[in-house]
Design a protein that fits this description.
With about 375 residues, this protein is α/β, with parallel strands linked by helices. The strands form two sheets. The protein has a seven-stranded parallel β-sheet. Strands 10-9-8-11-12 form a five-stranded parallel β-sheet. The relative contact order is 0.10.
Length: about 375
């Protein structure tokens, strides 16, 4: 008798960085321990097989990633998805056609996968980084293959289509329409327990729960901690090591890094009391700082600013976290009002204290711990 299967669908899984691979491995290892057969379906461009047990089946089948310009889950606060009244009919139809193309592609990939793997009662399908487009793709697939609903489908959301803080949500009704319609199409399957919805924070649950009768449940983001995860002691006389870890993006403060280095230069970087470590993608331009600061970065010993590549291997990333004394999360508090930072969770689980923005999920988590 074959084992029931746990199929993880991650169309954004392309490379090592961004936590997609690490998250997939953690979830599938847990499924393996629970007596389920792990199966992984990824983006077509996924080539990384190191660390994946050879007994696991891997299907690189998805053409498009979950996020992008056609998803409301990618919009920053104040920058919603196009509506006819705001950006013109041409742009509106461009968005509509782009969404339809991605939904059809996702559904077709599921059709091909589950022709080869027939889902049965007791099987589970997990989408660990979900948006409205992947949900619509699942619904389209289930319409093509109703027997696929024999399995239990788990849809996990890390952000909301309603961006920013609760006071900002009523003005975003237009960009939430696609998600609202998708959820309303899901209500019957959700009531039957065939589709189950989760989110990484209670704030994300609250925003998505107001869109339909479908209930989102809080499910914490998994972080793996091993016996060597605790932070390394700072050698006597060495600088305090500050870390800007993870993928550099605008909402994570990447555009303000030069300004940040300049502000810290006379407060410890120049004297050697502080050292700033940050991840940087290959080919990134140098920081736009003054010639004096640039000379110090290049010639001072120990180096005031240390650049680590992004992405790193799993072992290299763990070592980067372990050798930090303080984690800095210069995130946009509005963009991250409801969202988790997996970098923050990993730092805390490694015993590294963090400095985070106030007025968002990260600030609330730290404030609660600090009051104890």
């Amino acid at each position: 008798m074959s084992l029931p299967r746990f199929v993880l669908l991650d169309n954004s899984l392309i490379e090592v960085g961004g936590h997609f691979l690490e998250h997939a491995l953690r979830v599938l290892k847990a499924a393996d321990v629970a007596g389920l057969q792990p199966i992984l379906a990824t983006n077509r461009d996924f080539k990384q097989r190191d660390g994946i047990p050879p007994s696991w089946l891997v299907y690189p089948i998805f053409r498009y990633t979950a996020l992008g310009p056609y998803s409301a889950f990618s919009a920053l606060p104040g920058k919603g998805v196009a509506a006819p009244s705001r950006r013109g009919v041409r742009e509106f139809f461009k968005q509509f056609l782009g969404r339809r193309k991605r939904v059809r592609s996702f559904a077709a990939s599921c059709d091909r996968l589950f022709e080869e793997i027939t889902l049965e009662q007791g099987d589970h399908v997990c989408l660990p980084f979900c948006t409205e487009l992947s949900l619509l793709g699942v619904l389209k697939h289930l319409n093509h293959r109703p027997d696929a609903a024999n399995a239990t489908w788990h849809l996990y959301y890390h952000s909301s289509c309603l961006q920013g803080r609760p006071a900002d949500w009523p003005a975003q009704e237009q960009q939430a329409n696609v998600m609202k319609q998708a959820l309303r199409q899901s209500e019957v399957l959700a009531e039957q327990g065939r589709l189950r919805f989760y989110a990484t924070t209670q704030h994300v649950c609250d925003s998505l729960n107001q869109l339909s009768r479908v209930a989102f449940r809080y499910l914490p983001f998994p972080v793996e901690v091993d016996s060597e995860a605790s932070s390394a002691n700072r050698p006597p006389g060495s600088p305090l090591r500050l870390l800007l870890g993870g993928q550099p993006r605008a909402e994570k403060g990447a555009t303000h890094r030069a300004e940040f280095v300049t502000s810290l230069w006379s407060r410890g970087l120049c004297s050697g009391a502080l050292q700033l470590r940050m991840q940087q993608q290959p080919g990134s331009p140098p920081l736009e700082v003054s010639p004096k600061v640039q000379h110090g970065i290049l010639h001072n010993e120990p180096s005031p600013v240390v650049f680590a590549p992004y992405p790193l291997s799993a072992a290299g990333y763990r070592e980067l976290l372990r050798c930090a004394d303080v984690g800095l999360l210069m995130y946009d508090g509005g963009a991250y009002y409801s969202r988790i930072s997996s970098v923050m969770l990993e730092l805390l689980c490694s015993g590294v204290p963090v400095i985070v923005p106030a007025g968002c999920w990260m600030g609330e988590l730290v404030a609660e711990a600090n009051t104890r």
